[in-house]
Structures are given as C-alpha cells and as structure tokens.
Give the backbone structure.
Amino acid sequence: MAKRSITVQVKMDRKTLRSFAVFDTFILKKQWRKPAVFSLILLVFAFICLFAVDKEQHVLIGSVLLAIAAALPFSYIFMFLSGVKEQARRLKLPRRVYTLSLSGSGIAISNDIKKEETVWLEWSKVHALHRRKNAIYLYASPARAFILPNGQADATPDELWQMMTEHVKSARK
C-alpha cells in the first residue's frame, strides 16, 4: 500500500547542488549553445586565416583566433562551476535547507535556513518533475526548483517518484 504522505528533510551538500546546477543550466536550459556557437564561429575564422596564405601574418591571427576558440568553452565552464562553489560556500553547505511534506492535496514547503511561513504548492501548479540518478528535481516554476536527494525522504526514491508523478498527472486531467 502506498503512503498517504511523505516528508523529505533536505540536507544539501556541494556535490548535490553542483549536479543540479549542471543539469538545470546545461541539459534543461541548454545554455551551452551560445558559447559553443561563438567558439565555432571563431574556429571557422581561424581556419580561414590559417589557409589564407597570401595575407601577411595569417598564421598569427589564425593562431590567436584558434586559441580563443579553444579557451572560451573551458573558461565558461570553469566560471560557472566556480560560481556554484561560491554559492555553496555562501549557503554554508552541507546543512539542512528545506523540508517538503507531500500529501494527496499538495506540498507544504518550509525553509529550514531562516524562519519563514510555510508555503503551499498544489499538485496542479507543479511546473515539472525530473528524475536523475541521485535526486528528483521538483520545479515549482521554470525559475524555482526543489532538489530532493535520494535517501532523505521517509520513503524510498521509487515510492517518492511514483507518488509525485501520480499526483501531478491526476491534477492535470
């Protein structure tokens, strides 16, 4: 018999936050495209310069463009990951960050970092659910997500996922 309610007390660590940030930014929102396109454009111009043998200093200009095109994606990813690391440091992770109580009528969300009123989220208002290897991502809106790491609920990850998907499906009918 399935549980009527499930409580998840989320203790966040840097690794979990980083996994979510990579998923949200690079997989879900596909924000890797603009740097990749820019690097590709620079690569094209670098090869044009390198093969324009009749122009003066074509190798120098082509090499500079090639170096920038190669360094750009690495610097973008490095800056992104260092920003996530800084955010984890500011949040003083690892620590408990929020508690979600899931029931048939919706989700009660309470902030464990600072005293705030409990927020209620109806199943019909859930924007999206994503299941990854080590966590479930509950999107209340496109810009607000809750990370539910495996093993932190009073149910198994499969029971938690089944409850969430069933309630979201039935609320959207």
Summary: The two ends are 24 Å apart (CA to CA). The beta strands are 6-12, 95-103, 106-111, 119-121, 128-131, 135-141, 144-149. The first helix runs from residue 14 to 28.
